[in-house]
Amino acid sequence: MTGRVALTAVGDAVLEMAAHERAVADRAAGAVVSFAGVVRNHDDGRSVTELEYHAHPSAPDVVAEVAAEIAARDGVIAVAVSHRIGMLAIGDIALAAAVSAAHRGEAFVACSDLVNEVKHRLPVWKRQVFDDGTDEWVGSA
After folding, report:
1. Which terminus of the chain is less hemmed in, N or C, by CB atoms within 10 Å?
2. Angle, vertex CA 93, rays to CA 3 and CA 5, nearest 5
3. What is the pLDDT of residues 101-120, one digit of tens each?
4. Are 32 and 106 in contact (CB under 8 A)?
5. Cα dihedral value 25, 113, 45, 48, nearest 10
6. pTM higher than 0.90, yes or no?
7. Half-sphere exposure of residue 42, counting CA atoms within 13 Å on the CB side?
8. What is the secondary structure of the chain as a DSSP string?
């Protein structure tokens, strides 16, 4: 049995972890594992004040493809993953992911792989703004 892709998105809407967890909820699930990638106030010893994410037009297709690959794994029941674009403040969620699976081991591995694959393949770039007014562009998110 192949799992389902419950939710994928790339957009400027505020991300809510509870919505991702609800999207993957299933009576057959023995585990739900979620991950929130949160904007932190520092990077490489420098104070960060905000981030701005930009996405290539293909980004929604890429995130959907990654989610489908993870959902196809044995034991995975459902997958939800979203990446935010636009201006984000410290503490905002930039990446939300949730996976339900029959067992916790499968859920942990699948959620970790989901996050890593999205970070590796998603054509999203970020501009970090530092407290001294300078900024820096960083490759894919």
Report:
1. N
2. 15
3. 999 999 999 999 999 999 99
4. no
5. -40
6. yes
7. 3
8. ---EEEEEEEESSPP-HHHHHHHH--TT-SEEEEEEEE--SEETTEEEEEEEEEE-TTHHHHHHHHHHHHHTSTTEEEEEEEEE-EEEETT-EEEEEEEEESSHHHHHHHHHHHHHHHHHH--EEEEEEETTS-EEEEEE-
